Amino acid sequence: MKEILDAITSGCASAEDFAALRLPESYRAATLHKSEADMFEGMASVDKDPRKSIHLDEVPVPELGPGEALIAVMASSVNYNTVWSSIFEPVPTFAFLERYGRSPLGRRHDLPYHVIGSDLAGVVLRTGPGVNAWQPGREVVAHCLSVELESSDGHNDTMLDPEQRIWGFETNFGGLAEIALVKSNQLMPKPEHLSWEEAAAPGLVNSTAYRQLVSRNGAGMKQGDNVLIWGASGGLGSYATQFALAGGATPICVVSNPEKAEICRRMGAEAVIDRSAEGYRFWRDEHTQDPREWKRFGGRIRELTGGEDVDIVFEHPGRETFGASVYVTRKGGTIVTCASTSGYTHEYDNRYLWMSLKRIIGTHFANYRESWEANRLVAKGKIHPTLSRVYPLEETGRAASDVHRNLHHGKVGVLCLAPREGLGVRNEALRAEHATAINRFRTPAPAPEPVEV
Ligand code: NAP
Fold first, then answer.
1. Domains of the chain with bracketed CATH
2. What is the pLDDT of residues 115-144, one digit of tens each?
3. Which residue in 72, 228, 421, 437 has the most C-beta neighbors within 10 A?
4. Which atom of ligand 1 is nearest to the CA of 257?
C-alpha cells in the first residue's frame, strides 16, 4: 500500500507506473459483520451505537470483473446510509448482498462482512475488460449508482433499472476503505481545486439534491421559486440550499439551533427558521397531528417571504414533518421526498393536496447523467463541499455516530489512504477564488469520547 500511496503523492507517476504497481492482497476497510446483525435487537434506534457495529478489518482485494475498476481510496465520507447500515435498519444490508449474490458477478458481494461507504475520492489502480475511458492513475470521484442496464426499463433514466443498487449500501466493497471496487460508469473526474476529503464529501448528497430539486425528474425548480428546505445545514439540505441560491430561487431554511442557522446565513440564505427555538410540535401525541401548528408554521413562512407560500418543499424527515409540508405548499406546488428519517408512514390531510392541486413526487439518488451534471457544478466552483469534520478511517464508527446523533454540520469526512488533510489540490488558482465558501462548514473534531461496552 505504501508504493501506491507514494505514487499518488509524488504527483508525477504515469499511467504506466500505476499499471505496473503491485496490488496488495488485502486492505483495511470499515466493515459490518453479518454475525452481529441482531446485536441491537430490542433497542430504540437512538440507542444503537455505530461505534459498536463498525469494525476496521483487513479484507482481501476483490476480483475485478468486466466494466469495473479498483480504486485507491484517498478519502470517503459518511452518509446517512452509513448510519442505516450500522444500526441494521430498516433491514440488515446483508439481505441486499444475498440478493445481489444470486447473479454470477454479484456472487463476490455476498460475504460475511460488508465494506460500507458510498462516496470516494481517489486514484484508478486497475480497470477490468471493456473499460476504455479510464486509465490507471486517473484522479476520480465515484457516484454511487450501480446498474446493470440489461433491461430497457432503465435506458431513458438509469435510476429506473430493475437492478439499480446503491454502491457501498446494497453492494459490497464500498468507499470507507483503502481500496474500493466500482463499475467504471460510476467514475467522474475529481474536482481539481479540492483536497481528497473535500472532493469525497458532495457525491451522494449533491447528486440526490440535484435530482430532487433541480432535475425535471424531481421538482424542476425555476427562478423565483420559494423552496422550503428541511435540515438545511445537513447533508442533503446544505446542497439543496446552494442549488436554490445558485438557481435564482429563495430557500427558506429550517434548522434546529442557532449555529446551524448561522451556517445557512453564511451560505447566503436570508430566510431561516430555527424549529427548536420556535417550538413547533406538529404531533400532539404519537397518533394525532396538530393542524394549528401547521398553520403557525405556514404563517412564519409567509412572514419571511413577504406573504408568499412555498412552491417546493424539499422533504426527507418524513413522518414528523410531512403533514406540515403538504399544508404549507402553495396551490399547484410540489412536495418532493427522498426519505423518511423520522418514520416511513406519512400522514397528511389529503384535502390540502387535491383541492389545491399539489403534487407529491418520490425521488431517489440520481441517474448517471444527473450525477455527472451535479459533479460538474462542483468542479466549476459553482457548488461547494460542505465538509465540517474529518476523522481517520479507524474512527469511522465515531463519524457515523455523530451523524446518527445529529451532532454534525453538512458532511463528515473520513481519511482513508490520505495521510493528512489538505492533499490532492491540483488547481490552486480556482481554489483561491472559492476558499471561503469551501471552508464555510469546517469545525474542529471534538475530544474522543469513551464508548460504553
Ligand atoms: P443529515 O446530514 O443527518 O441531515 C438531515 C437533517 O434533517 C438533520 O441535520 C436535521 O436538521 C433534519 N432533521 C432530522 N430529523 C428531523 C425531524 N424529525 N424534523 C425536522 N428535521 C429533521 O442527513 P442527510 O444526509 O441529509 O439525509 C437525510 C435523510 O435522507 C436520511 O434519511 C437519508 O437516508 C436520506 N437520503 C436519501 C437519499 C436517497 O437517494 N433516497 C439520499 C441521501 C439521503 P436540523 O436538526 O438542523 O433541523
1. 2-205+366-438 (3.90.180.10), 219-362 (3.40.50.720)
2. 999 999 999 999 999 999 999 999 999 999
3. 228
4. 47
